[in-house]
Amino acid sequence: MEGNVSVGTESLVVRVPKAGELVAAQLRRQIVTGELKAGDPLPGESILMERYGVSRPTMREAFRILESESIIVVLRGAHGGARVLAPDESVAARHMGLFLQYQGVALADVYRARAEIELAALRAWAGSASDLDELTALVEEGRNLLGDPVGFAKLDTRVHQAIVDLARSQTMSIMAGMLLHIMDAHNALYIRTRGPEHELAVDELAYRSYRRLLKLLSAQDIDAAVAHWRRHLGKVEAHMLDDPGTTLVEVLS
Predict the structure, then answer these.
(1) Residues of the chain with CATH 1.20.120.530
(2) What is the CATH number of domain 90-252?
(3) In sequence order, which residues have a C-beta less than 8 Å from that of residue 1 and are 6 or more positions away?
(4) Domain 2-84, classified CATH 1.10.10.10, yes or no
(5) How far apart are the C-alpha atoms of 93 and 99, rounded to whole Å?
(6) Least crowded by CB within 10 Å, which of 113, 183, 209, 214?
(7) Minimal CA–CA distance to 63: which of 30, 21, 92?
(8) Could you list the pLDDT tens digit for every one of the 253 residues in the chain?
(9) Cα–Cα distance, 200 to 129 (Å, whole number)
């Protein structure tokens, strides 16, 4: 159902949500606020139909919406029914990647966005030495992973996430996590196509860069840390992107 609303001299078409969408919105709110927790079963269809005053097709449409968002799973059979799933960052990253692909976004743009988030996080760091414990542990772990390109690539992602986490901003951390999920796919493709034997020298440079960053942060020399990390990220982008016009379609499809 649609209606016309006049605003000044303009007429806007207002779309009224369908009943299934309204039911899905009610259930989604209960999930994201924690009223319904991961693993909890949803009440049966008949109970929910009575609660919301809707038909079975409408209730199933609400389930389809929530299942497409990966916040419930509908199991079939005698012991079936709908169960709540915890919101998954990787699902959000896939949706984000799909949208960026649709927009024709270049992979270089993702690298630059990642860089700006990390540099902003370094500038925002309050400077408590205890904040560096996780980053210190990751750097130490990195030493043992030199010579293991796949393992070091996974650690590299954790290092970048730990740097963003220094800002203590959940929004920044989540945004960085989604970008890093996309970049993980590029790392895996890069190692597959180039061969792991080409990565040792690069990983050693990255490891030394981690140590330098940690030293600067420990000395609370934020300006030098930001300048150093900007140079490092620029080198990473130059190494990983032979063609700056490469799009995400070529990486994620």
Answers:
(1) 90-252
(2) 1.20.120.530
(3) 16
(4) yes
(5) 10
(6) 113
(7) 21
(8) 445 555 555 556 667 788 999 999 999 999 888 899 988 999 989 999 999 999 999 999 999 999 988 889 998 877 778 999 987 777 788 888 888 888 888 889 999 999 999 999 999 998 788 899 999 999 999 999 999 999 999 999 999 999 999 999 999 999 999 999 888 888 888 888 877 777 888 899 999 999 999 999 999 999 999 999 999 999 999 988 876 667 776 666 5
(9) 31
In the chain, which residues fall in CATH 1.10.10.10?
Answer: 2-84
- Which conformational region is residue 86 in: left (phi greater than 0), alpha (psi within -120 to 50 degrees), or beta? beta
SS3 4: strand
Task: List the one residue out of 215, 209, 214 whose CA is nearest residue 231.
Answer: 209
How many Å apart are CA 60 and CA 49, to the nearest integer? 10
> How far are the Cα atoms of 61, 63, 75, 195 from residue 79, in angstroms, in the given order?
21, 17, 8, 47
Closest CA to 122 of 132, 111, 133: 132
Please give the Cα distance from 14 to 5 (Å, whole number): 7
Residue at 194: amino acid letter: R
**DSSP one-letter string for 71-84:** SEEEE-STT-EEEE
Q: Which residues have C-beta within 8 Å of that of residue 151, sequence separation ≥ 6? A: 145
